[in-house]
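Run log, item B.
One chain of 325 residues. Sequence copied directly from the ordering sheet:
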Amino acid sequence: MPSQPAIAMETGFRAYLTEVRQKALAQGVTAATLDRVLPSISYNERVVRLDRAQPEGAADAPIPNFAPYKARHVDASRITRGRAKYTELRPLLARIEAETGVPEEMMIAIYGHETNYGTVTGNYNAPEALASLAYEGRRRALFEAELIAVLKMIDRGVPQYAITGSWAGALGKPQFLPSVYLRLARDGDGDGYADIWKSEVDAMTSIANYFVNAGWRRGEEWGFAVNVPATLDRRAIQSRMTAPRCPRVFSRHSQWKTIAEWRQLGVVPQRGFWPKDSMLATLIEPDGQGQTAYLLGGNYRVILDYNCSNFYALSVGLLADEVRN
């Protein structure tokens, strides 16, 4: 028999779903969908435990070096598989790049990082996971909005297999949250349905559309590795701006300077050539002074929009370069 605390938790959860039902109705979800979905889900303690186990990252906690993360995420296996997937999908990717300006290899790099090229997409019931996380309450506004978004997806005919994803509700090959799916998922093969779960055409088209929506600039690279002279005055180039979003991530970036200005400061590209002098870039030294640094263009900020982590964005960019090369 369930314990008294478990019975109390389920009772509270069901009462909360009654509140959600009213909010979803007010946002246009049909009663038929709600009456079919909501009674079928239960409080999932496992997803709540997984959420609570995520590192909080105190504002003053030391930031580790990037090199160990890079070794795990831009590894030989992921590069080899990425190149194979790149070759397999070239005609499709070339068409999407021509239409959107998002490089073929960048779509593949996101695909590789998010789901290891579609092999790890999650097996959690998204409405149940999102409802449990919303009921738990620490981030109710976020998860309740995503719960209602996935109910809208179901209401619009998205099939049962498509509402399975990560424990946090991310869905399909690109790991879109439901609200992102509703806004930005795109049908790439003309069948009238943006199937980011089974269709690589739709998944790649949707990733590219996300990047376009976030401001991707056609023909501009994301960034590149550089060597920084020991004489560089870091205080003189320190950014004086505070970002409204992910301030700790952006605080690691220097002031914006043109490529011509970085050249004058003695920064040297490891690859041996520069982009155009007028390109604006910021500097990051993710492994400290004296180690490989990176000049980051405006398109790097687009990768951060997908996942606001310097380590993530750097490794996506570096994997994309390896896939292309």
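Observations after the first pass:
- The chain has a mean pLDDT of 93.
- The beta strands are 124-125, 164-165, 223-227, 257-258, 268-269, 280-284, 293-296.
Flagged for discussion on Thursday.
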